[in-house]
Amino acid sequence: EGEDVLEERAPVITIMGHVDHGKTRLLDAIRQSNVIEGEHGGITQHIGAYQIVHPHEGRDRAMTFIDTPGHEAFTAMRARGAEVTDVAVLVVAADDGVMPQTVEALNHAQAAGVPIIVAVNKVDKEGANPDKVMGQLTEYGLVPEEYGGDTMFVKVSALQKQGIDELLDAVLLTSDVLELKANPDKSARGVAIEANLDKGRGSVVTVLVQSGTLCVGDTMVVGTAHGRVRAMFNENGENLDVALPSRPVQVLGMSSVPRAGDGFLITEDERTARQIADKRETAERNAMLAKRRKRITLEDFD
Ligand code: GTP
Ligand code: NA
Ligand code: MG
Questions:
Q1: Which of 22, 49, 82, 140 is the most exposed place for a label (fewest CB within 10 A)?
Q2: Best CA proximity match to 265, nearest among 231, 232, 223
Q3: For ligand 1, atom 10, which residue shows the shortest CA distance?
Q4: 18-37 pLDDT, tens digit each
Q5: What ipTM goes with this model?
């Protein structure tokens, strides 16, 4: 008791940027997968979370990536996304340059104090102008090392899989400075990244474990959802018995569907989990009713 043994954990990296600048294609290149082909209209509708292993300075390093949708409707989710993020990769298409959601994304990351690495993407395209991107971002405080600043810019082509290793090395150089650690020897805590109701499987919640170890059989409260963890899966659909810090994992067994950004914790039994969930639900309902009952007073009116 009281002894908190911290161990190295994988960095959590959020990929941000304007619509269609290549976030999902970049993550596909990093993972050597093809998520983009399965998307409706090529638009990311949900937040994907994946862990990869990258050889770096003679060691295999785990890295967790979160792909945030670029669509404006998801701005709120992205704002929450920054809270779990250790390092942000800002994707800017070299043919398009800095766009409104590029600025929005960098504002979120800067406000959260998260270091930013710029991936200047689509350098393979005709009309690509990486220097212009560098100049544009300088105005937002992201000054390239080449210009005497301290922001790493990496030129990549997600399509042609160029510059990917350099980008991963840059992320690890940055995250290593942060000395990211967590204690795996306690019950897990973390955040729901996304959740949905699946016809066959019921409530499916992707959580990011931030500390401790999540185990199948644990009783969990996540937002106002609760239940016993019936099964866990990694991003490839493989069964996991345990999930260590920085691992994103799909959890089955919750009573309902929580919201992205809801925190989770582990309780001693199912009854406690239900009671905490009930308490939260009552508090939320009361807060909502109080808002509805609120009438304009003379002080409000000026
Ligand atoms: P949202 O999720 O909708 O915000 O888009 P996104 O940022 O995830 O972009 P996505 O990965 O869907 O890529 C958008 C388009 O750009 C797709 O047609 C990609 O194939 C293309 N693309 C992405 N990276 C590159 C690249 O390096 N070069 C070229 N030529 N095309 C690319
Ligand atoms: Na897209
Ligand atoms: Mg996408």
A1: 140
A2: 223
A3: 22
A4: 999 999 999 999 988 777 77
A5: 0.99
Residue 245 DSSP SS3 = coil
Q: How far is CA 70 from the centre of its chain?
A: 13
**Residue 189 contacts residue 267 (beta carbons within 8 Å):** no
The reply, when asked if residue 161 is annotated as ligand binding, is no
- Which residues make up the environment of ion ligand 2, defined by Cβ < 5 Å? 20, 42
Q: Is 119 left (phi over 0), alpha (psi -120 to 50) or beta?
A: beta
The tokens for 99 are 């766009």
CB neighbour burial string for 245-263, b if at least 16 within 10 angstroms, e if fewer: bbbbbbbbbbbbbbebbbe
**How crowded is residue 297: how many other Cβ atoms within 10 Å of its Cβ?**
7
Cβ-Cβ contacts under 8 Å for 24 (sequence gap 6 or more): 35, 36, 39, 44, 48, 67
pLDDT tens per residue across span 109-138: 898 889 999 999 999 999 999 999 999 999
- How is residue 146 written in tokens? 């080449």
**For 97, which DSSP code?**
-
Query: Nearest 5°: phi and psi at 289?
Result: -65, -40
Strand order in the sheet with 12-17: 48-56, 59-67, 12-17, 87-93, 116-121, 153-155
Instruction: Return phi, psi of residue 105, to 5°.
Output: -65, -45
Residue 79 has phi, psi (to 5 degrees) of -60, -40
Distance 21 CA to ligand 2 centre (A): 7
Residue 295 has a CB neighbour count (10 Å cut-off) of 6
Nearest 5°: the CA angle 109, 148, 139 is 50
Is ligand 1 within 6 A of the CB of residue 157?
yes
